[in-house]
Amino acid sequence: MKAAVYIQPDKIEISEIEKPEIKDKGAIIKVKGCGLCGSDIVKIKHKLSQSGTVLGHEIVGEIVEIKSGNHDFKKGDRVVAGHHVPCFKCKYCLNENYSMCRDFKNSNIIPGGFSEYIFVSEDHLNNTVFKIPDNINDIQASFTEPAACCMRAVKRANVKLGDNVLVIGLGSIGLLLGQIAKHFGANVSGCDLIQDRTKLAINVGFDNAFNSIGTALTSAYYKSTTNDIGADIIFMDSGSGQTLPLALNCVRDGGIIVVFSSISSDEAGYANNDIYYRELTVMGSYSPSPADLCESLDLIKRGIINVEFASIYDFDNINEAIQDTLKNRIVKAFIKI
Questions:
Q1: Phi/psi of residue 142, each to 5°?
Q2: 188-215: per-residue pLDDT in tens?
Q3: Which phi and psi angles does 20 have, rounded to 5°?
Q4: Which element (helix H / strand E) includes 321?
Q5: Does this model's pTM top 0.85?
Q6: Nearest CA to 228 among 253, 209, 245?
Q7: Is residue 19 within 8 Å of residue 42, measured between CB atoms?
Q8: 163: domain CATH number?
Q9: Are residues 143 and 196 in the same domain?
Q10: Which helix (H) or strand (E) is 181 found in, with range?
Q11: Is 260 exposed, middle or buried (0-12, 13-18, 19+ CB in 10 A)?
Q12: Per-residue DSSP letters for 7-39?
């Protein structure tokens, strides 16, 4: 079968690899498409994967073979599939830190979503594979996993009715975060260097969106919209260390900063004394639980999450999609397999 194979240092090749098989229980899914995640870009850009790796995990497809004790699925079902499964029993799971679970980290689909077929285990079928409602198209369904990551972040921050939320960075994740925070009752603003993205944020339901034009001016403008108090909660998903001072200037005393992206600089971080004297909470959020996947798919089904900002690329053009993403020419790529 065809797969997009990562070759170090920074090359993706469409190659022929062995099609996965069911050795015990599980299912073979024919992949219809897969979203290009920011984490895929990071792994390529920073050479974090081994040669021969097939990336991709925002999968939509059809079950073409199944051997399972789970009778909810059958051949021909159109499905989305989360790629990691927690054990639900360890210290991490019992404290709802599912993405820290060792089973979660060690489990995966085989090989990866940028391929014609994948294998999902029985545990996947029981926990992270979901049938796609008829009113959702493939591109919409592929947003289930990234939306679930955002759902997890919003829940961890305990976003509630009337909270002032600022989303710094309006790529696909920022747009999803803002919509979900809005669903939880927050007053949502967003900022980004790219003007088209601020317009898009307004189109998907943000209360306010504006261009970031430097820490002092941007934070002064944002605070003026909150009676000079600042944000109760800030979601940081820009991936730039230069936005850290902006977050500290915009968050209110006693507020929350949610770190939702990696930053390349080893020196990037939040000042200890700011956290201490202002009683700030700085937290990370990484991956979703199975319940978040289910809930996010439902919000997409109900039209609460708008994901009409993806650009479609044929499988053979995956490298073009990667370059367009790196150069900020697009908001989100969907690779049609």
A1: -65, -15
A2: 999 999 999 999 999 999 999 999 988 8
A3: -70, 155
A4: helix 318-326
A5: yes
A6: 253
A7: no
A8: 3.40.50.720
A9: no
A10: helix 172-183
A11: buried
A12: ETTTEEEEEE-PPP--SSSEEEEEEEEEE--HH
Same domain, 83 and 114: yes
139: amino acid identity, one letter: I
Q: Domain range for residue 213?
A: 158-284
The rounded distance, in Å, linking the Cα atoms of 46 and 48 is 6
Examine the domain organization and report whether 137 and 11 are in the same domain: yes
198 and 240 together in one domain = yes
Tokens of 334: 């969907």
**C-alpha span between 84 and 104 (Å, rounded):** 5
Phi then psi dihedrals of residue 223, to 5 deg: -60, -30
Instruction: Please tell me the distance from the alpha carbon of residue 70 to that of residue 137, in angstroms, as a whole number.
Output: 25
Taking Cα atoms as reference points, which of 89, 109, 234, 241 lies closest to residue 159? 234
Domain end position, chosen among 243, 265, 284: 284
Assess contact for 265 and 241: CB atoms under 8 A: yes
Angle at 271 between CA 193 and CA 148, to 5 degrees: 55
Q: Is residue 152 part of a domain?
A: no
Whether 62 and 79 map to the same domain: the answer is: yes
Last residue of a domain, one of 284, 306, 323: 284
Helix (H) or strand (E) holding 123: helix 122-127
Residue type, 177: L
pLDDT digits (tens, 9 = 90+) for 142-195: 999 999 999 999 999 999 999 999 999 999 999 999 999 999 999 999 999 999
